[in-house]
Specification:
This protein is of the alpha+beta class. Helices cover 22% and strands 31% of the residues. The strands form two sheets. It has a five-stranded antiparallel beta sheet with strand order 1-2-3-6-7, with helices on both faces. A three-stranded antiparallel beta sheet has the order 4-5-8.
Length: 177
């Protein structure tokens, strides 16, 4: 049964490690980890999560976009497990957008990301998938993919002046004050 697992925070060395490839997708531990990731991201009002955030250094991430208090305008999609993902192509267009992270609570930053990406990953049933992701969903994927390489969103900020607290983000950006 899936459980809510504590999310590790910035400063934990696992967040700075390059994650290992998943060899056996059908392994009971990996399948339970997928369930735990989905349960945890939904309960934490996230739109994505990567295995290293649950202190499991595997190349496994979940994209789970849906409107919630942290991202009220997020598009709706089913939580999708992406195992051993790769970015195979990307747009030349880079756009800045606000990001937060469940492992860096209380802070948001304007992060430059590719507008569109093509990705490959293995799904939880062992089938190779290829997808084009755009806009907010592409941003989620790139954010979570960075976790697999030990990168957190604050590493991508071009300027510390483009960082605000969660409270200011909710007031100024979400409520357009």
């Amino acid at each position: 049964m899936a459980e809510l697992v504590p999310i590790i925070q910035l400063g934990n060395p696992i967040l700075r490690q390059k994650a290992a490839l998943v060899d056996n997708i059908q392994d009971e531990h990996i399948q339970k980890l997928i369930e735990d990731l989905i349960t945890t991201v939904v309960q934490a009002n996230g739109v994505g999560i990567a295995a290293p955030q649950l202190a499991q250094s595997y190349r496994l991430l979940i994209v789970a976009s849906r409107p919630n208090p942290r991202y009220p305008n997020a598009p709706e999609m089913e939580p999708t497990a992406m195992i051993n993902p790769k970015i195979t192509a990307h747009s030349t267009e880079v756009v800045k957008g606000w990001e937060g992270c469940l492992s860096v609570p209380g802070i948001r930053g304007l992060v430059p990301r590719y507008q569109a990406i093509e990705v490959e990953y293995t799904d939880r049933n062992g089938k190779l998938q290829k997808q084009e992701l755009t806009d907010f969903v592409a941003r989620i994927f790139q954010h979570e993919y960075d976790h697999l390489d030990g990168i957190v969103f604050v590493d991508r900020l071009e300027n510390t002046l483009e960082m605000i607290t969660e409270q200011e983000y909710q007031q100024r950006v979400v409520n357009n004050i």
